[in-house]
Amino acid sequence: MLASFAPPGHVIVAAADAAAHPENSRFDRERARWDESPSRSARRDETRMVAPSEIAMTTKHAIDPEGTRLPIKLDTTSNGEFAPVALSPANRHANHLAHETATHNAKRLSLSRRDFLVSACGAASTLLAFNTANAAAGRRGGWFDLEAEAALEPQLAQARLGGKGEFIFDVQGHFVDPTGAWVRNAPADAFKWSPKAGCALAKEPGPRSHLRCLGPEEFVKDVFLDSDTDVMVLSFVPSRPDAEPVTIQAADAVRRTVDRLQGTHRLLVHGRVNPNQPGDLESMDELAKRWNVCAWKTYTQFGPGGNGYFLSDEIGTRFIEKARALGVKVICVHKGLPFGRQSYEHSQCGDIGVVAKRFPDVSFLIYHSGFVTGVPEGAYAEGAGRDGIDTLIRSLIENGVAPNSNVYAELGSTWRFLMREPEQAAHALGKLFKHVGENNVLWGTDSIWYGSPQDQIQAFRSFQISPELRQKHGYPEITPALRAKVFGLNATRPYAISAAEVRKYTGRDRIERERLAYRERPEPHFLTYGPKTRREFLNLLAWNGGSRA
Predict the structure, then answer these.
(1) How confident is the model at residue 239, as a pLDDT?
(2) Residue 218: which residues within 8 A CB-CB, separation 6 or more?
(3) Are residues 19 and 103 in the same domain?
(4) Rounded mean pLDDT of 528-548?
C-alpha cells in the first residue's frame, strides 16, 4: 500500500529516492556531486519544451483505453529459448506500486490513466516505482537514475527518457512469418496465446488470421514507430530448414517491406548456419551472394539428435574458414540461455576465447553474453568456475583476449530479464564493460518477442551502477557517452556501417515522417509476443518436435 512508503498526502514518487537511498548515505553524496557536474547540467539543458496540450488533454484511445498496461513491462515473457521465470515478490510489488502511482499521478495532471501512461511521465513514474520496490527489497546496486519530479514534469521526463539523438542499432530482432511453410505443421491456434495475437487484424476472415498480428506491418510499427530504434538486424531462431518460423526469403521480404517505406538503410539480415546440420555449410554461398547477409547466426547447442558443437572443434573451424573465404567475417553465436541439459556444455563460452585468438580477423558477437536465467550474476571471481556471463569472461582471460578486441557481448534478452534484478544488472553490465570492453558491448532486444523495444530503451537510458559497486569492482559509470556507444556506435564496427551515413537517410525517409506523424497520437500496445507460462513455452517447442534441438 502507499501508506507503507509515503506519509498521507505525499506523492509516492517523491519518496522513491528517499526510500531507495537513505539520508546522509554515500548515494546522497554521489547524487549531489552528479547533480553539480557538467554532464548533469547538460542533461538539464536538453529539456525539450512541451506544450501544455501535450500533457493536459484527454485522448480517445483505441488500444487499452482504461490504461491497464504499464509502459515498462516487468513480466514472465520468454523469447522461446528459455522457460518463463516467475516474478519475484519484489517484482510483483514493483508492478503494484507502479499501477498505484500511475493512478495518483494521472489525477495530479488531470489525465486519464492511458494518456498518462503513454507519456514520458508515465514511463518515469513506472521506473521510479520500481526503484522504491527494489530498495525496499534491499536491491541497491543499480537503479533508474531519475528525479522524482520526472513523474509529474513532462519536460523533465522527456529530457531523461526521450530521444537524445542517439543512433540506436538493435542487432537482434525477430518476427514470425504468418504465411511461411512452418504454418502447415503448426496447430490452428499457434501463437493464439500471445497477447499481441488479439489485435484488430485477428478479426479479419480466414484461417489463422490472428497470425497477421505478428507479421511485417506490425513489426514495422513495433520497432520503428513505437520505439526510437533506427536500424535493426533481423535474426533467426534455431530450427530445421523445414520448420523455420522465418526463412531467409521471408526475412528478405520484410527487408523489402521496409525498403518500400524508403527505409533502405534500416534493416539488415543474418544468415542462419548450423554447420553440424546437413546442407548448412553448403548453403552459405547462396546466403552471402544472393541474399547479401550481413553476418552468420549459429547456435552451438543445437544440432541433429540434440548434439551441439564447439566453434573450436573441426566442424566449427570449417564454418569459420568458410565465412572468411566468403568475406562475411562476422559470426553471431548464441551462448547462454541453454535449451536444456543435453549438450549443455556447448551453450557455454569456453570456445570463444580460443577461436577469437586463433582468428583475429573475425568478429565474434556473443548473443546473450552467455547469460543464464537461473544463475545469479555477481562480480567476476577468478577461479570460482561460475556459469553464466562468467564463462565468457573466463574464456577471454584464459586465452589472453584483451578488452575491445574481436569479441563483442550482445544484450538481447539479457538486459530485458535483468531489468527485473537491478543489482544483478549492475554486475552484468559492469563486468562486461570491464572485461569485454566499453567499445564492445552491443545493444540487442530480442524484439518482437518482448513487444516494442521502447521500454528496454527507456530503462537503459536511465540505468546507473551504484558508486559502491563501481569503486569496489572497477566498473565504469554509465555516462551518456557510454550509453551512446552501447545503443549503436559499438555495433557499427563489426557490421561495417557508418552511423553518420545511415542517418543521412533515416533522418528524412518515409518511416521517419510516419514516426513523427504517428507520435502526435501514439497508440503503443505495451504487449509482448513470447510465451509467459511453461505451458505456452512447451506448446511453442512442440511445433519443432518437442525440443529446440
Answers:
(1) 54
(2) 196, 199, 201, 212, 448
(3) yes
(4) 77
Distance of CA 131 to the CA centre of its chain: 20
With respect to residue 62, please indicate whether it lies within any of the assigned structural domains.
Answer: yes
Identify whether 544 is part of a domain.
Answer: no
- For the segment 446-490, what is each residue's pLDDT rounded down to a tens digit? 988 899 999 999 999 999 999 999 999 999 999 999 999 999 999
Q: Which domain holds residue 296?
A: 169-516
For residue 376, what are the contacts with CB-CB under 8 A and spacing of at least 6? 421, 424
Q: What is the pTM of this model?
A: 0.86
The whole-number pLDDT of residue 247 equals: 57
Confidence at 35, pLDDT banded by 50, 70, 90: very low
Question: Within this chain, do residues 198 and 307 fall inside the same structural domain, yes or no?
Answer: yes
Same domain, 272 and 413: yes
Residue 5 in grid coordinates: 512508503
Question: Which CATH number is 497's domain given?
Answer: 3.20.20.140
Task: Report CA Rg, the chain.
Answer: 23
Whether residue 331 sits in one domain with residue 297? yes
- CA quadruple 319, 323, 326, 332: dihedral positive or negative? positive
Q: Is 28 a domain residue?
A: yes
Close Cβ partners of 308 (under 8 Å, ≥ 6 residues apart) = 276, 299, 300, 301, 302, 343, 345, 346, 347, 549
pLDDT at 228 (0 to 100): 96
pLDDT digits (tens, 9 = 90+) for 245-284: 545 565 566 666 666 555 567 888 888 899 999 999 999 9
Q: Which residues of 18-53 are buried (b: 16+ CB within 10 A; e: fewer)?
A: ebbbeeeeebeebbeeeeeeeeeeebeeebeebeee
Q: For 108-114, which contacts have Cβ atoms below 8 Å and span 24 or more sequence positions?
A: 108/11, 108/152, 109/55, 109/56, 109/152, 110/56, 111/55, 111/56, 111/58, 112/58, 112/59, 112/61, 112/67, 113/66, 113/67, 113/68, 114/59, 114/61, 114/64, 114/65, 114/66, 114/67
Rounded-to-integer distance, Cα 433 and Cα 415, Å: 14
C-alpha cell at 93: 510489488
Helix residue ranges per DSSP H, 58-119? 89-108, 113-117
- Distance between CA atoms of residues 407 and 365, nearest Å: 6
CA 156 to chain centre: 24
Distance CA 349, CA 366 (A): 9
Cell (9 digits) for 406 = 574481436
Phi, psi dihedrals of residue 452, rounded to the nearest 5°: -60, 140
Band (pLDDT 50/70/90 cuts) for residue 521 is: very high
| Residue with the three cell numbers 501514439 | 522
Q: If you average pLDDT over every residue of the chain, what do you get? A: 84
How many domains does the chain contain in total?
Answer: 2
Among the ranges given (118-132, 278-292, 387-401, 431-445), the one the predictor scored with the smallest mean pLDDT: 278-292
Residues 197 and 120 in one domain: no
Q: Can you say how many angstroms the Cα of residue 327 is from the centroid of all Cα atoms in its chain? A: 29
- 8 A C-beta contact, residue 161 and residue 458: yes
